[in-house]
Amino acid sequence: MSEALVFYAEIPLSNQGFNKWLARPVAIDGLAVCSVLDALADYLAQCCDPVAGNALLCRYQRTDKTLQFAACLRDGSSRQSRDDASFLKRLWQELVSCRGKAGKPGAVADAIVDWSEAGPGDAGDPAWFREWLQAMPLLGAPDSQGRWLDREILRALAAIDAIANASPEHPARIGCLYTDGVQVYADVAGKTIMVDDAEAAGGQRMEFSPALSYVLEGAQPRSMRALSDSYYTDGNILWHCNIFAGNAPQALAYCEGQAPRLYKFVDSSVDALIVLGDMAWSAAMDDSKPPHERYYIKSVAIDGQSFARVAGGNDFQDRFRRYRFDERRGLLPLNPLEA
Question: Phi then psi for 100, rounded to 5 degrees?
């Protein structure tokens, strides 16, 4: 039987760098896109069995600002182990790009990229790694490994478990949406509608449309994630759903291996800006329409590769032009004089 494939790394990393790494997008099978955090949690939930010798350690020491990362794959020669090693290597490479100036290259950090085979618990290994290997046969399910897994990963595992056990009697929340484990739903509030009425004060009276429940057709509950209260993705489709605006959920685009980028605004009470590929979407109000029809999702063509925020404010630019986000009118292309 082949020896286990064992590797570890300990790397200086700021709090900001750690959070940035967890949020980094990774493509799965070249199609679905999720964050590093969701990828780690999904790997732990589906592939790890410490008793059998497959395990993952990932914890961030916030006091020391150090990330400890280790994995053990029981059969280093198997195709599955090599695929898992390749997958974990991609996550590690995303981490290296988030290190900034705090990270220092070294033999330990390089070893995990090379995936060299090592005997368990060599004398030169750090104490935390040897202790983890010794404890491995006694470890339980991933959600019980609080000592070896970061709290953010444990939260993500709890969300996966809730969705996996969801049912019509016990639905699980996904942001402002919910799932019964089979489909994803949105309960959308009704709208206030002004109706002409000669007998009413001011010549109009208020009516209320009923609240409605919608199915997000094609959404995958297991991979569905809330990017904000209004934007969601399962890695395949980008959705807009503001349950308080009274509009039906809207599928904006297929991700096609790309990750949506979300921009928030301190002074925005309406929505945020979402970018995917060469298109940007934002909520806007059309004041030429009746009040109950004014809210809509505005799309603007951009150059996604060069599109970037300017100085953290409401201005953006790509290689062709500048833009400004307006709370009421959404993203606005600017002419040279306005820019």
Answer: 65, -150
Q: Which of 218, 76, 222 is nearest to 162 (CA)?
A: 222
CA torsion angle 6 22 127 100 (round to 10): 100
The reply to whether the predicted model has a pTM over 0.85 is: no
Q: Is 154 helix (H, G, I), strand (E, B) or coil?
A: helix
Distances (CA, A) of 32 to 26, 97, 115, 163, 180: 8, 21, 26, 18, 21
* Tokens matching residue 183: 């489909």
Task: Report the DSSP pairing between strands 231-233 and 237-240.
Answer: antiparallel
Number of Cα atoms under 13 Å in the Cβ half of residue 19: 4
| CA 247 centroid distance within chain | 24
**Token pair listed for 108:** 């330990």
- Whether residue 92 contacts residue 109, with contact meaning beta carbons closer than 8 Å, is answered with no
How far is C-alpha 132 from the geometric centre of its chain's CA atoms?
28
Measured in degrees and rounded to the nearest 5, phi and psi for residue 278 equal -105, 35
Comparing C-alpha atoms, which of 37, 48, 94, 96 is closest to residue 72? 48
The alpha carbon of residue 25 and the mean position of all alpha carbons in its chain are separated, in whole angstroms, by 7
The answer to whether 150 and 67 are in contact (CB under 8 A) is: no
Contact 302, 280 (CB under 8 A): yes
Q: With CA atoms as reference, report the closest residue to 56 among 118, 151, 149, 173.
A: 149
Cα 216–chain centre separation: 18
| DSSP for residue 88 | H
Task: Write the pLDDT tens digit of every residue in 54-109.
Answer: 889 999 999 999 999 888 887 767 788 778 888 888 887 777 766 654 444 333 34
Q: Are 242 and 271 in contact (CB under 8 A)?
A: yes
Q: H or E element: which one contains 69?
A: strand 66-73
Per residue in 300-335, pLDDT tens?
999 999 999 998 788 999 999 999 999 889 999 997
